[in-house]
Write a structure and sequence with these properties.
With 98 residues, the protein is of the alpha+beta class. 24% of the residues lie in helices and 13% in strands.
């Protein structure tokens, strides 16, 4: 992806400070790039919930760890620039304590 198109996405979709640049774990980005180059689609296990969803991750399935197990997450266009941890809950609501 060209840098000027990346600037376009950031300025149009998100009101965010530029000093808080995007973050993707380097190993995750390497796996995504390899899968984009080869054209295959398989589930990638991810422990890093702080990584942001980039435009080249769209239509992939990631298994995001919630602290106990992996939860399957199918990425679509509306999830771009959000973090992986936003879509996978870490706590299960059981009941109200009263």
């Amino acid at each position: 992806m060209l840098l000027h198109s990346l600037y376009f996405w950031i300025f149009t979709l998100m009101a965010r400070s530029l000093k808080k640049w995007f973050y993707v774990h380097p190993k995750l980005q390497k796996k995504i790039d390899a899968m984009n180059a080869s054209g295959e689609r398989k589930v990638i296990k991810v422990w890093d919930r702080a990584s942001q969803i980039m435009p080249d991750m769209v239509w992939f399935t990631l298994a995001v760890h919630n602290g106990k197990q992996f939860t399957s997450l199918y990425i679509n266009e509306e999830m771009i620039w959000h973090r992986l941890g936003e879509f996978v809950a870490t706590r299960n609501f059981r009941w109200h304590p009263f």
